[in-house]
Design a protein that fits this description.
Number of domains of chain B: 2
CATH superfamily of the largest domain in chain B: Response regulator
Number of helices of chain B: 12
Oligomer: heterodimer
Radius of gyration of chain A: 19 Å
Largest interface: A-B, 36 and 38 residues
CATH topology of the largest domain in chain B: Rossmann fold
Structural class of chain A: mainly alpha
Structural class of chain B: alpha/beta
Largest sheet of chain A: 2 strands, antiparallel
Order of helices and strands of chain B: HHEHEHEHEEHEHEHEHEHEHEEH
Strand content of chain A: under 5%
Shape of chain B: elongated
Number of helices of chain A: 14
Helix content of chain A: over 70%
Distance between the termini of chain B: 76 Å
Helix content of chain B: 40-55%
Strand content of chain B: 15-25%
Largest sheet of chain B: 6 strands, parallel
Number of strands of chain A: 4
């Protein structure tokens, strides 16, 4: 295998190696129902990573995703508990989109670096969720909602996994098959050149941030549907897992290079590792070490294959 | 002096020496009940116009919220002003809040520490200023506190675990433990309690997994259930693990018994619903602890000696007693079922 092939297919190769290794050592891992279960378990991280991929490709970062997903989940659960029925879905997505819009406005029109702007959103979203819940776990009784977003089954596949597939296909099409997607790459590759070419950089970035927020609304709803309650800290920390999955997939943190499929593989790698290590009853602390070592190995292999030394990719 | 008399004197002296520390221990106030204030003491409190500070490490969990509520309610009842600060798990914030309370010259401080080692320097400053400090949870590494109050973590886990093993009713039953990766003594005590309960019943622990996130705990519980077809029970060592285990078992459709440490609202709702795999939850009496902390500070100011460690017993919440337990654990709160 040449260096170029490793650069293009290394992440797929690494994923296949991990899966084959786990299949060999654990009969429980290779059970069909377990593979279906992994699909369900990666839905939340997957959709969050797709949103993060768009933001990073455009040369920005979003540290608010976990807090926004938590806040959206809390507001949706409260709306359901208040008897708002299907309108609660709009409320949840609206909360997420609202925070995304705020991220975009702060970053683009107030010229606040996205690192800071989204950190501000993180604190506001966390504060809103905590204020609304008062630290309580919000319970809601809406089986239709849970079935729609997580626990329902279609052809043996859980609805959470189907949302992941739907989000992937829709966003992949948007990124790989539309002019909008090409503009995202162009902006992340060289923002000044993109402006000189007449691209609506600000508008595209605003759409990306708002879309990422709306996707966090969806993530929040899947999250509360999976467990049947909502908490103010329900998705805290999700942003770091999402960034990790995107980087493992090979998307450049500086923007302009990467793909949604590679992020999906990064998510699947994390999901498979989480699942396999738990099945093998590996201690929590040892799991962190193993995952850390594997992630850095994959990233270093990818950087070597792309001929990157020292400079940030 | 005969040989017998010398022997009798020696025994008496030995008895006195060994009894002395025990007597001192008896003299100190060592339970939540013992801290209760008499009518005369209450009258004295009103005259003193006391102000206490309460530094909570967070208010995003049920225990902390109930602890604060218990302290606030009792402080208001006896006419003590209570200043509540939330550190939101930030040790530096808590240190600043601690110093601000000393600046305000409060009469006492009670706290749940974010970081027991770093709060020691602040406790030293309180000692210097003569401000009594009462701790709920881990003791500080430095400084003197009037007492450290904790729930009976070991016994609570052991008791709930024993109910679980009894409900399983099989020798060599396979059990999994779902926990939290905190290196705290209380967490270790909970784990030891369930390990001893399983061992005493002749069962075997086949998996121990932990995480901080409820969603991740759900994944772990699902994975453990799928990987172990003979699994008979799951013991959850904290509230979010209870929620995760309950949901994972329900989704699996398997007949797996659940017990846990921490009885919170979702657990009560499950028990009230009737159709649940939860057989027992060990509930901390946070409200009682909040009141006891206020009483402990008052007792100390009035000159009483508190025992170094005060243990509050846990409630064993089951389908038979959940309504009574609710009223003890959440006094005055509306039942959510």
């Amino acid at each position: 295998m040449t260096r170029a092939q490793i650069a293009n297919y290394g992440i797929f190769f690494a994923f296949a190696l991990v899966v084959i290794g786990l299949m060999l050592v654990s009969p429980a891992f290779r059970a069909p129902e377990n593979l279906v279960s992994i699909g369900r378990q990666i839905a939340v991280l997957g959709i969050a990573s797709f949103a993060m991929t768009f933001v990073i490709l455009a040369g920005e970062i979003d540290l608010s995703v976990g807090a926004v997903a938590s806040a959206s989940g809390v507001v949706t659960a409260m709306a359901l508990a208040a008897g708002m029925g299907p309108w609660a879905i709009l409320v949840g997505v609206g909360v997420g989109a609202g925070f995304g819009l705020m991220n975009g406005l702060l970053t683009i029109y107030a010229a606040v670096p996205s690192f800071i702007a989204t950190l501000v959103s993180f604190f506001i979203a966390q504060g809103v969720a905590l204020t609304l819940t008062g630290g309580r776990t919000i319970l809601f009784d809406a089986d239709w909602f849970r079935d729609l977003f997580a626990t329902g089954t279609v052809f043996g596949l859980r609805s959470a996994f189907l949302w992941l597939i739907f989000a992937f296909l829709a966003l992949w099409w948007l990124l790989a098959r539309t002019r909008f997607g090409a503009h995202v790459y162009a902006i992340g590759g060289n923002q000044q050149s993109a402006r000189m070419l007449g691209l609506a950089v600000d508008r595209i970035k605003l759409i990306i941030f708002t879309m990422a927020g709306a996707l966090m609304g969806l993530v929040g709803m899947i999250l509360i549907s999976r467990i049947g309650n909502a908490r103010s800290d329900g998705a805290i920390g999700l942003e770091f897992d999402a960034i990790a999955a995107v980087v493992i997939g090979g998307t450049a943190l500086g923007g302009g290079t990467g793909s949604l499929l590679r992020s999906l593989i990064g998510v699947m790698l994390i999901g498979v590792l989480n699942n396999g290590l738990a099945i093998l009853n590996v201690d929590f602390n040892a799991q962190q070490v193993i995952k850390g070592v594997l992630v850095i190995a994959v990233v270093l292999l990818d950087r070597w294959a792309r001929g990157l030394k020292g400079a940030s990719a | 002096m005969t040989r017998f008399t010398r022997l009798a004197l020696a025994v008496s002296a030995f008895s006195l020496l060994t009894a002395a520390p025990a007597a001192a221990q008896d003299a100190c106030l060592g339970t939540a009940e013992a801290l209760h204030l008499s009518d005369a003491q209450l009258a004295d409190v009103i005259d003193r116009n006391l102000t206490f500070g309460f530094l909570t490490n967070n208010i995003s969990d049920d225990f902390s919220r109930t602890l604060v509520a218990g302290g606030e309610a009792y402080a208001e009842e006896i006419g003590v002003e209570l200043i509540v600060n939330n550190a939101d798990f930030d040790a530096n914030t808590q240190l600043s809040q601690f110093d601000a309370l000393l600046q305000r010259q409060v009469d006492g401080i009670f706290l749940t520490a974010v970081d027991a080692s770093s709060i020691g320097q602040a406790v030293n400053r309180a000692n210097r200023d003569g401000v009594p400090v009462f701790i709920v949870g881990g003791a500080p590494a430095r400084g003197e506190v009037i007492a450290v109050m904790n729930a009976s973590s070991y016994q609570g886990s052991f008791d709930a675990g024993a109910v679980m093993m009894d409900a399983i009713g099989e020798a060599n039953a396979q059990v999994a433990i779902l926990g939290i990766p905190f290196a705290l003594q209380t967490i270790r005590d909970r784990e030891k309690g369930i390990l001893d309960a399983v061992g005493a019943a002749g069962g075997q622990v086949i998996s121990m997994q932990s995480d901080f996130s409820q969603d991740r705990l759900l994944e772990l519980a699902t994975n453990v259930i799928q990987a172990n077809p003979d699994l008979k029970g799951i013991f959850a060592t904290w509230s979010l693990a209870v929620n995760a285990a309950t949901e994972a078992v329900e989704q699996s459709g398997r007949d797996i018994v659940i017990a846990g440490y921490d009885s919170e609202v979702p657990g009560y709702v499950e028990l009230a619903g009737g159709d649940t795999n939860i057989v027992a939850l060990s509930g901390q009496q946070a409200s009682v602890q909040g009141r006891a902390a206020i009483e402990g500070l008052v007792q100390s100011i009035l000159g009483a000696e508190l025992c170094e460690e005060i243990i509050t017993p846990n409630l064993l919440v089951t389908a038979d007693n959940f309504e009574d337990s609710w009223s003890v654990q959440y006094p005055g709160a509306e039942q959510p079922w």
